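sanity check both lines:
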Amino acid sequence: MYLSWVDPAVPVPRWTLVGFQRLTVPLDIQQQVSFTVTARQMAVWISDAAAFSVETGMHQMSSVLRSYVVHILAKHDDGDIFCINNK
């Protein structure tokens, strides 16, 4: 699973790998796969604050077969992030 930032406020990589799982799925069979992406994996370096932080706004999660846009609504100092998954 790859993560991309949509319109970031600071320079970031175009894509970053945040999850990997190898599966063998027979032809014509659907398989559900779940990934947990942590706040640490989504954080970017904010030089003004001299710290890593998760930016609110749009993020794109992408795999080989499917892509999702995730909207980060709010973040808290304890690391909790609230988001909406826009399919």
About this structure: The helical segments are 39-42. Strands lie at 2-5, 16-17, 44-46, 51-53, 57-62, 67-75, 81-86. The first strand starts at residue 2 and ends at 5.
